[in-house]
Amino acid sequence: MIRERTIAWSDPKLTADASRGMSGLAFLRGMRDGSVPGAPIAALVGLSIDAVEEGRVVMRLTPAEYHYNPIGTMHGGILATLLDSVMGCAVHARLPEGRAYTSLEIKVNYVRAVTVASGELSAEGNAVHVGRRSAVAEGKVLDAKGRLCAAASTTCLVFDLPVE
């Protein structure tokens, strides 16, 4: 039986333009509160921002069949996307206006399989170090019972946004 899914997302240029005039913390709080359009990847995968503090971000994701790989569990790439998002945003939440980041590498350790029976996932990212040129963050994903599903670390490049 074929299933269908329809998604809608905001113009990513509006989101990127909004980021230029705000600190990372204000920008992420705006996305959480809905005053700044969310990233298209969040709509595609089903991510939502739950909490934003300086250097710490929590996101949620409810597993669905459309996240599954061929063996009937959530594809590792979805968990990696969740972790990359939450860790990168934790770094972003420490950046002043005019600065940005991009992921240079990500390391994920998968601990347990995730299915719809896992319930809502909670991912927490924490910035460990944010310097002028690089940043390091770590993250973890817990299932609805508080069990660890995956843990990760990332290194990010930190840079000045180009002047328009």
* Separation of the first and last Cα atoms: 50 Å
Structural class: alpha+beta
How many domains make up the 3D coordinates? 1
Task: Please give the number of β-strands.
Answer: 6
Report the radius of gyration as a whole number of Å: 16 Å
Principal-axis shape equals globular
* Tally of separate helices: 4
Task: Write up this protein.
- This protein is α+β, with helices and mostly antiparallel strands.
- The chain has one domain (12-160): Thiol Ester Dehydrase, Chain A, CATH 3.10.129.10.
- Helix content is 26%, strand content 34%.
- The protein is built from four helices and six strands.
- Strands 1-2-4-5-6-3 form a six-stranded antiparallel sheet.
- A hairpin with a 3-residue loop joins strand 4 (121-130) and strand 5.
- The longest helix has 17 residues, at 76-92.
- The radius of gyration is 16 Å and the shape is globular.
- It starts with 11 loop residues before the first helix and ends with a strand.
- The mean pLDDT is 97.
Features:
164 residues, alpha+beta, Thiol Ester Dehydrase, Chain A, six-stranded antiparallel sheet, 26% helix
Question: What is shown here, in short?
Answer:
The protein is α+β, with helices and mostly antiparallel strands and 164 residues long.
